[in-house]
Amino acid sequence: MKLKFVDQPYQTDAVNAICDIFDGCEVKDSLFTIEVDQRNQLDFNAEGVSYFIGHSNKLSINDFTMLENVQSIQEHNDIQMSKSLQNRNFTIEMETGTGKTYVYTKTILEMNKRYGFTKFIIVVPSIAIKEGVNNSLNATKDHFMEKYDNVVYNYFVYDSNHLERIREFATSTNIEIMIINIDAFRKSFTDPSKETKANLIHRTSDKLNGNKPIDLIAGTNPIVIIDEPQSVDGTKKSKEAIASLNPLCTLRYSATHKELYNLMYRLTPVDAYQENLVKHIEVASITSNEASTKPYVKLMSVSEKNGFSCRLEIYVNNKKTGVIGKKVVTAKTKDDLWELSNEVDYYKNNGYIIDNIDCFPGEESVTFSNGEFLNIGDVIGNVDESAMKRAQIRQTIEMHLNKELHYMKQGIKVLSLFFIDEVSKYRDYSREDEKGDYQIWFEEEYSKLINQPRYKLLREKYGDYISTDPTAVHDGYFAQDGKGRIKNSSGTTNDDETTYQLIMKDKERLLSFDEPIRFIFSHSALKEGWDNPNVFQVCTLVETKDTMTKRQKIGRGLRICVNQNGERVLEPKYNTLSVIANESYKEFASTLQKELESDNFKFGIIEPISFTGIAVKQHDGKLVELTQKESEEIFNYLVKNEYMTSKGKITNKYHQEKHDDKFVLPEQYESFTPKVMKRIDNLSREIEIKDASTKVPVKINKEVQLSPEFVSLWNKIKQKTVYTINMDMDAFKKQAIEQIQNMPHIRADKIDAQITNVDITKQGVKDVGHQVRELGAVYEFEKMTYPDFIRRLQDSTGLLRKTIIEIVAKSGRLKEFYVNPEEWIKQVSKILLSVKKENLTEGIKYEKVDDYYEQDFIFNDEELYGYKDRNLLDVSSEKNIYDHVIYDSEIEREFAVDAENDDDVLLYAKLPSRFKIDTPIGNYNPDWAVVLNTNEGEKLYFVAETKGTENINDLKGTEKKKILCGRKHFEVIDTGIKYEVVKELKTLKSKC
């Protein structure tokens, strides 16, 4: 099978955030000469040749224009505007699993299409990421060739044994992409005395006719793409190495940047999670909280304040109930744990009297009179580690098989991943069968589970794909020694490189039903640079301290899953990643949040620019958008009035006044209050990690489903429709002409000169004052070229050629095209797209078709789960088609609670996400179907949308347009169903 790729809007936004930086740049070929050393003519093709012609990137706009473009993009993307180009370093922040490599590959091709750039270098920090990038370029080649008219682009992994490939890179006129590890070019490249120790890339080469590879690369003025820059150029030497490439600019892609140079686009972990761009996460904790029949002690901390003391977790007897449980106590030298535990027998006469507490940094420990010794974090008497790991393996297999029961019929292959740090636990060469403990335990547990009655369907219906033979369903990816035996490794050796290549090579094969392997064991050192979209369980079995971060664990399986056709399956119910952890859910969630915060993501923090871009129609009908400056004024108002701390944390005062409907902004911003409040609420949200122990299956209530009320309700909503768009072209053209006539005057591109006074001091070179002078318009210095603006506007707007000609001609603004062609096209295109979007829903018309929604498809309880105390409401057996309500917001929860307690509500149902109404801006899924009883005994049928406001004009554009489309759909089906947008149930009742 081959993976299929589709353009996703957020990826296109990330591509445009970089490409638009060069807006106004012209396609220009730039040449340079590569001299041939006649003493080193070992290359047959160089015989009799004194030089070669190299082809390089050419930038035709100045830094002032580029900075203006950067600031415009940042304002559009709600990012703090930069004050300088910072050596043309530009940053894209994208969460793991959202297609970062796809984005920068598309960016390469898009920049070539728009500006003619051809030379690109991808710098990576490790073998793993190098292999991952190369694999991604292979996988997406056909997709991008089709998308970009079969443009020729070559890519290769730098190899010091094949330096001749560098000359091809430098002299080719095609798109050339080189992938290189930072370690290949950061050693001793500026010190002639260390020439023999330098990377080969910095030495003269006979294969390149006496040239240094680095000189040929630098001559191309490449665009450098750094994948995971926090691991690439964190040192001075690495930064110097990047500079030696002579980059035209440097593009930096990661989810965890340490330095944010000119941030252009940000897709945060919360954005990716909330918008279902990655799998949701649940944690299955394998921990022991029960008291065993032996002493238990864990050293939490030590302190020398007020005398030496320590904090120990021990068993403590609750004398009221007689129950023994774990509790943290403070103890000092000579304390007896038998007394501290309220006389738990396991400590009596066993020598658990504290003999010594050591607080020396790095050697913190406690010693007992029986000789037992604990460092911080160590445990005595814990449940046997082997039992815990075996339980993790069993839990992983069970969750895997449960998913297969539902996923197989969707064509989704389920994979589970085990990370281990001792390969002898998987393959033990000292044993006759060479099986390690983990392999033995896995095969025993798998055999027990797969043969249980509940998995009969898997054995009988899918027996051709799901083997009951435990030896056939698992395999390992590990480095190998010269004899082919697997071994422990660091993840950075040459042996690891072959392992990564195998993982990448097998990626698509593992997704096929024809491949029996469903469980993968891998070394914990191989923790980055690769993933598989159909990893649904991740289990870490480690003998020593777990060095993998939570983000590394979940990163191997965050990507949205695919079916047997290689197509992404977008439904959230098929995209849950289960982490089988040997710690509590709270510990896992807390650690993950701390990791995200250490990676520059701020939870619940409002920034001065957070309200930029909020748009509201004023009383005069004019749409006004908040600028960054106005956003800062609102931010300062919130701080001054104690709605928020100076660090951006929302206070209780804000929440209280919001609850009491008293919160309001100053007069000049009063109309923005609802949208500012919504932005505050959105920015205060956190990633929701679900606790597998609270997972509850949601079932259909057959009695309600067969009731007359539900049958009647279903008959009123089951009709399907199709829409046509009959846009009023005269109104569209009139509006477009008016807006183009009123657009700002197009000024000629200017060339400026900045004259800087330089002072050289011990602190370095400083700018002690400068002045900027305008030298004149660009066309005064070079001949203007004029693009085909009609074709360009057609490509960007999808409008007919004759429509564009008519609008432009009647606007009277065509002459300004010849003053500044690119700026004119940019402004006109923006207006045409805006007016087109505004008019789309105005002319939409719905019609009934001879087709109906299928009740069994819409209302079913297959693989339907909620989570207690998080998104699940237990409801009565009389009113709802399900035995629980799964809600998405507090407003929905309150609506369901009110419906449960209101005698006038005969029946209500949260409409499943499968109930979709087609609209030109995406599918629309209404919230509720409700049957109400009036005072006269009449039954009224409603479809309700619950929002934080009942004024749809307060909603953002897409949300509002979908609601308008939904309203037209229900008007057309004309079955007596009423459609309403409400904030609460009592508003809906008032419509009766």
Radius of gyration: 33 Å
Count of helices? Answer: 29
Helix content: 25-40%
What form results from the Cα inertia axes? globular
Sheet-strand content, in percent, reads: 15-25%
Q: Strand arrangement, largest sheet?
A: 5-6-4-7-8-3-9
Mean pLDDT: 83
Task: Calculate the terminal CA-CA distance, rounded to whole Å.
Answer: 55 Å
By helix and strand content, what is the structural category? alpha/beta
Weakly predicted, low-confidence segments? 38-49, 751-775
- The overall strand count is 39
For the biggest sheet, the summary is: 7 strands, parallel
Please sum up the structure shown.
With 992 residues, the chain is α/β, with parallel strands linked by helices. The strands form twelve sheets. It has a seven-stranded parallel β-sheet with strand order 5-6-4-7-8-3-9. The protein has a seven-stranded parallel β-sheet with strand order 19-22-18-23-24-10-27, sandwiched between helices. The protein is globular, with a radius of gyration of 33 Å.
